[in-house]
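Friendly challenge for the regulars: who can give me the structure tokens for this chain first? No prize, just bragging rights.
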Amino acid sequence: MRIAVPHNMNRKEARKRVDERLASLLGQFGDQAEEMEHKWDGDTLRFKGKAKGLKVQGTVEVTDAAMIVHAKLPLLALPFEGRIKEAVQKEADSMFA
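First reply, four minutes later:
Bragging rights claimed.
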């Protein structure tokens, strides 16, 4: 799954927004997530863990013009990819509004 969300800020500010939203989401939904790990490698956030028992992993890359999410969904989640993508897109859009 790939989602690209344009932004109009520098990378540092965009990374800060990603960090803030991640902290907020983990605080809000952390009880539904297990073994969550995330780490910045330059301007790329690498993440993995389980959500509702399903493994998820991927990256969030911050460029000068966009935030690009690449996520590998488990086979069981593929029928819900459209809804998952829509929810992630909505969160990302609001982050840079």
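The longest strand covers residues 33-41. The chain has one domain: 2-95. Your move, everyone else.
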